[in-house]
Specification:
With 236 residues, the chain is α+β, with helices and mostly antiparallel strands. Helices cover 39% and strands 10% of the residues.
């Protein structure tokens, strides 16, 4: 995966995504930390350079923030894995997908603003991991690498951690016999709940769970205020 000798992240003729990838590989390296400020200072004059960095993730680049790796400072990012060489013509479009703001919004609304895999809400703290909060993203039901479309039917709301885990399960495919075996092992009450989710094409959230997901989208100060108001309401 050697760089072509004529490619340099300082070359302003290159696209922002390619320049970001070259900068990360050459200046940061796997296992290195950096900040968004350093990235913006390096790739000057390019709009939405942060988004171009995020666009590398579907191409196998693993870039973690303090939400994913509690040891990081809030302004630090960690380059865990260098993915596909998007500076190569062969991989120039690797991982790229166009999801409109409306589609993204609709999928989040459909899924109740919670991860459909583990159930955690946006901004909620992971159990037993103080300071590590969930960040929601969109994943594909059928792998994007397999040529699937970015349509609502093939998109699912995931937390960044589940999304990362699923993308690394290459070669591991579930089949209906394995799923049926698990269904048979469930208690009858759980089978009924599962059937209801199947009919609704999603986990049926209770009214309290829906408000819980909305609550975690608020800033911390507003969450504290609401918690106090609810406490007073319960005491009245």
């Amino acid at each position: 995966m050697a760089l072509e000798p004529d490619l340099d992240w300082r070359d302003e003729a290159l696209g922002a995504r390619i320049r970001v990838a070259l900068w990360l590989r050459g200046e940061v390296g796997e296992g290195g930390t950096f900040s968004k400020r350093q990235l913006r200072e390096a790739i000057k004059g390019k709009e939405q350079v942060d988004r171009r960095m995020r666009d590398l993730r579907p191409a196998g680049w693993v870039i973690k923030s303090y939400r994913d790796k509690p040891s990081l400072k809030p302004d630090e990012l960690y380059l865990e894995t260098v993915g596909l060489p998007v500076w190569d013509k062969e991989y120039r479009a690797a991982g790229l997908r166009q999801i409109s703001a409306k589609t993204r919004r609709d999928v989040y609304e459909r899924d109740g603003h919670v991860c459909r895999r583990c159930g955690i809400a946006a901004g909620e703290e992971y159990p037993g991991e103080q300071g590590s909060h969930a960040r929601l993203t969109l994943g594909h039901v059928v792998s994007h690498k397999a040529g699937s479309a970015a349509s609502p039917e093939n998109l699912i709301t995931e937390c960044a951690r589940c999304n990362e885990s699923v993308r690394h399960l290459t070669g591991v495919q579930m089949d209906k016999e394995k799923v049926w075996d698990r269904i048979r092992e469930l208690r009858n009450s759980d089978r009924k709940a599962l059937f209801a989710w199947m009919v609704h094409k999603g986990r049926v959230a209770t009214p309290a769970e829906k408000v819980w997901a909305m609550y975690w989208q608020l800033p911390a100060a507003q969450r504290d205020e609401l918690r106090g108001k609810l406490h007073d309401l319960l005491q009245s």
